[in-house]
């Protein structure tokens, strides 16, 4: 009946999701105020609900989206590190915050408090569901906890000469982006460690802080409002968010190669 379209047409399929632009209050640093994996999404407790509702609208059919704070702060993306198996939180996290996370996240997600001197875990750990890159100076015990809780292989690495691997690269199980000044040799080494394709790029109109500027999982990405169309197309291409195969994929890979030069012109 024309007045009652079938409800199943409204349900979004995973393939249609693209990168979404949003901002936390006035900040483009989406990756500072949110954390996203294939099993859950955390957002900082903010002044406005807009930020939370953008994530909720895109993700809530598939994974839980929840407000969280870590040690009383809203910067949940920079203080935590996690994947679909687990979530690591720093030692200043309060018992109340920990119990809120345990009650709200799926039972399959292990939540572990980490005693680590470098307590901004999101800055020093970059991980997907299989491999983690970590800051070269991380404690041995922390390295073991990451391997156990997240179920990943752990490699001490730098990205583009930067020790803060969580800040300067971002990767999912599909692909990844690294600091624009990363050398080709480094990218090949990282790509073989991670077993995913990598591209050097920027977010939020030229920012090289990829971890702070965006969050991604295997079917969606969120970046700041300043992110340019060029940057969005590179993000959608390397993280395989555009759906489709065959000619579409070839077209996307050409987008990445053709547009990279324009992305990093200003940096060279």
- Looking at the structure, what is the overall shape? globular
Task: Give a count of the beta strands, DSSP E runs of length 2 or more.
Answer: 15
Helix content: 25-40%
* Low-confidence region ranges: 5-16, 244-249
User: How is the main sheet built?
Assistant: 3 strands, mixed
Describe this structure in words.
- It is a single chain.
- The chain is of the alpha/beta class.
- It has 11 helices and 15 strands.
- The chain has helices at residues 30-33, 50-59, 76-79, 95-104, 121-124, 140-150, 165-168, 184-194, 210-213, 229-238, 247-264; strands at 19-22, 34-36, 41-44, 65-68, 81-82, 86-90, 110-114, 125-127, 131-134, 153-156, 169-171, 176-178, 198-200, 214-216, 221-224.
- The chain has a 3-stranded mixed beta sheet. Strands 2-3-4 form a 3-stranded mixed beta sheet, sandwiched between helices. Strands 5-6-7 form a 3-stranded mixed beta sheet, sandwiched between helices.
- Strand 14 and strand 15 (221-224) form a beta hairpin.
- Helix 10 (229-238) packs across helix 11.
- The longest helix is centred in the C-terminal third of the chain and has 18 residues, at 247-264.
- It is globular, with a radius of gyration of 18 Å.
- The protein starts with 18 loop residues before the first strand and ends with a helix.
- Mean pLDDT is 87; it is low at 5-16 and 244-249.
């Amino acid at each position: 009946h024309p007045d009652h379209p079938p409800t199943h047409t409204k349900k979004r399929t995973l393939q249609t999701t693209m990168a979404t632009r949003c901002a936390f209050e006035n900040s483009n640093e989406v990756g500072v105020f949110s954390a996203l994996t294939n099993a859950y999404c955390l957002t900082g407790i903010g002044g406005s609900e807009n930020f939370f509702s953008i994530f909720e609208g895109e993700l809530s059919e598939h994974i839980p989206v929840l407000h969280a704070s870590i040690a009383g702060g809203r910067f949940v993306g920079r203080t935590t590190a996690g994947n679909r198996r687990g979530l690591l939180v720093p030692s200043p996290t309060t018992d109340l915050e920990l119990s809120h996370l345990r009650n709200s996240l799926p039972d399959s997600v292990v939540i572990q408090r980490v005693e680590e001197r470098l307590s901004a875990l999101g800055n020093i750990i970059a991980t997907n569901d299989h491999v983690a890159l970590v800051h070269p100076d991380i404690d041995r015990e922390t390295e073991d906890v990451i391997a156990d809780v997240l179920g990943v292989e752990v490699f001490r690495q730098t990205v583009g000469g930067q020790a803060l691997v969580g800040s300067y690269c971002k990767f999912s199980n599909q692909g990844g982006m690294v600091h624009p000044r990363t050398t080709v040799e480094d990218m090949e080494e990282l790509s073989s460690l991670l077993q995913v394709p990598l591209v050097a790029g920027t977010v939020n109109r030229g920012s090289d802080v990829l971890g702070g500027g965006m969050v991604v999982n295997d079917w969606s990405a969120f970046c700041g409002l300043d992110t340019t169309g060029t940057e969005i197309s590179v993000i959608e291409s390397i993280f395989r968010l555009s759906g489709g195969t065959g000619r579409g994929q070839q077209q996307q890979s050409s987008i990445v190669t053709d547009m990279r030069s324009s992305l990093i012109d200003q940096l060279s």
